[in-house]
């Protein structure tokens, strides 16, 4: 078994981005909006700001109170959509209950939607014209590339059907000619489906859900989960120690997919800047 080192790969890709940004006449700029006081989200936005700084991306984080109304947030998004100094706008999820997440994601200019969550960017991904791709699945694809994991003709299982991970993950793997089974909480015979998989990507959000008896000998196991176990320790969806004995390649948590998520967000911010400064417009299908 070999461990896929997301932290090392992220550092390498961030250094490549730093060099790319050094050569850009207009420096990319990212606006991050955090509503409320979710402690995990605070860690993530801080890590995004640090990564941006390392790469040479200008970034600002707007900390809004938990009581922020939907209208207030939508007004701010309109303001940053119109402000040419910002190439990327990101609203950290989850949002407080009074704010409709779908409305917020729809309000972000698709050209500045560095998270790739706008329905237009989702639709473009689904129809084979990706522009902005959700960072977590994009990060997993970079891991496949870096570790020479071919998806061609492989049986892949994705656990979890969220818009930000499961669905785009399945699409990206299909684009590389994998046969993908997208499983979820109502899937019957889930273990048997997993046992046939060459590649398992788990984003189900349950600590140690994927056990050794789910996994075929030699399978590749990617853990997107970010959970706390009974002792309050950060862990993924995969029972790492026992699954590692059967897998050919496996990602740890922490230090696996997480750092890649932030790196891919930075990459998309650089791309958004390049596209916007070159006058590309996502809403035109010919671009
Ligand atoms: N607007 C967005 N919101 C959320 C996204 C997203 O892509 N865009 N994804 C997640 C949170 N997330 C990024 O925002 C994220 C989660 C985890 C990590 C990470 O590096 N995890 C570390 C461990 C960190 C820790 O110690 O707690 C790791 O796995 O090594 C980065 C980004 C939901 N919201």
UniProtKB/TrEMBL annotation:
Pfam families: THF_DHG_CYH (PF00763), THF_DHG_CYH_C (PF02882)
SUPFAM superfamilies hit by this protein: Aminoacid dehydrogenase-like, N-terminal domain, NAD(P)-binding Rossmann-fold domains
GO terms (BP aspect): L-histidine biosynthetic process; methionine biosynthetic process; purine nucleotide biosynthetic process; tetrahydrofolate interconversion
Limits of the Tetrahydrofolate dehydrogenase/cyclohydrolase catalytic domain: 4-115
Residue ranges of domain Tetrahydrofolate dehydrogenase/cyclohydrolase NAD(P)-binding in the record: 134-275
The keyword NADP appears for this protein: yes
Highest taxon of the lineage: Bacteria
Catalytic reaction annotation: (6R)-5,10-methenyltetrahydrofolate + H2O = (6R)-10-formyltetrahydrofolate + H(+); (6R)-5,10-methylene-5,6,7,8-tetrahydrofolate + NADP(+) = (6R)-5,10-methenyltetrahydrofolate + NADPH
Binding sites annotated in the UniProt record for NADP(+): 160-162
Coiled coil stretches, renumbered: none
Enzyme Commission number: 1.5.1.5, 3.5.4.9
Associated pathway: One-carbon metabolism; tetrahydrofolate interconversion
Record keyword Mitochondrion present: no
Record PROSITE patterns: THF_DHG_CYH_1 (PS00766), THF_DHG_CYH_2 (PS00767)
GO cellular component, one term: cytosol
Keywords annotated in UniProt: Amino-acid biosynthesis, Histidine biosynthesis, Hydrolase, Methionine biosynthesis, Multifunctional enzyme, NADP, One-carbon metabolism, Oxidoreductase, Purine biosynthesis
GO molecular function, one term: methenyltetrahydrofolate cyclohydrolase activity
Quaternary structure and interacting proteins, as annotated: Homodimer.
Recorded family membership: Belongs to the tetrahydrofolate dehydrogenase/cyclohydrolase family.
NCBIfam families per UniProt: PRK10792.1, PRK14179.1, PRK14186.1
Job description of the protein: Catalyzes the oxidation of 5,10-methylenetetrahydrofolate to 5,10-methenyltetrahydrofolate and then the hydrolysis of 5,10-methenyltetrahydrofolate to 10-formyltetrahydrofolate.
HAMAP family given in the database record: THF_DHG_CYH
Protein name (record): Bifunctional protein FolD
Lineage of the species this protein comes from: Bacteria, Bacillati, Bacillota, Bacilli, Lactobacillales
């Amino acid at each position: 078994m070999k461990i896929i080192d997301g932290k090392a790969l992220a550092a390498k890709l961030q250094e490549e981005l730093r060099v790319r940004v050094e050569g850009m006449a207009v420096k990319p700029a990212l606006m991050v909006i955090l509503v409320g006081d979710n402690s995990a989200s605070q860690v993530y936005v801080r890590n995004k700001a640090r990564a941006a700084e390392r790469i040479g991306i200008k970034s600002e984080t707007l900390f809004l109170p938990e009581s922020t109304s939907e209208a207030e947030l939508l007004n701010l998004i309109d303001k940053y959509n119109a402000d040419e100094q910002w190439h990327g706008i990101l609203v950290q999820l989850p949002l407080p209950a009074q704010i409709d997440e779908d409305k917020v994601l729809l309000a972000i200019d698709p050209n500045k939607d560095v998270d790739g969550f706008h329905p237009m960017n989702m639709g473009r991904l689904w129809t084979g014209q990706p522009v902005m791709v959700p960072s977590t699945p994009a990060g997993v694809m970079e891991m496949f590339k870096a570790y020479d994991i071919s998806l061609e003709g492989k049986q892949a299982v994705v656990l979890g059907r969220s818009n930000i991970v499961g669905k785009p993950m399945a699409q990206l793997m299909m684009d590389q000619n994998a046969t993908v089974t997208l499983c979820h909480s109502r899937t019957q015979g889930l273990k048997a489906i997993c046992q046939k998989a060459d590649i398992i990507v788990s984003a189900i959000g349950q600590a140690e859900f994927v056990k050794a008896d789910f996994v075929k000998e030699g399978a590749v196991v990617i853990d997107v989960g970010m959970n706390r176990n009974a002792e309050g320790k950060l862990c993924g969806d995969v029972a790492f120690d026992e699954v590692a004995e059967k897998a050919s390649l496996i990602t740890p948590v922490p230090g696996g997919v997480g750092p890649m998520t932030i790196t891919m967000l930075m990459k998309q911010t650089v791309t958004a800047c390049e596209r916007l400064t070159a006058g590309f417009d996502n809403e035109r299908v010919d671009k």
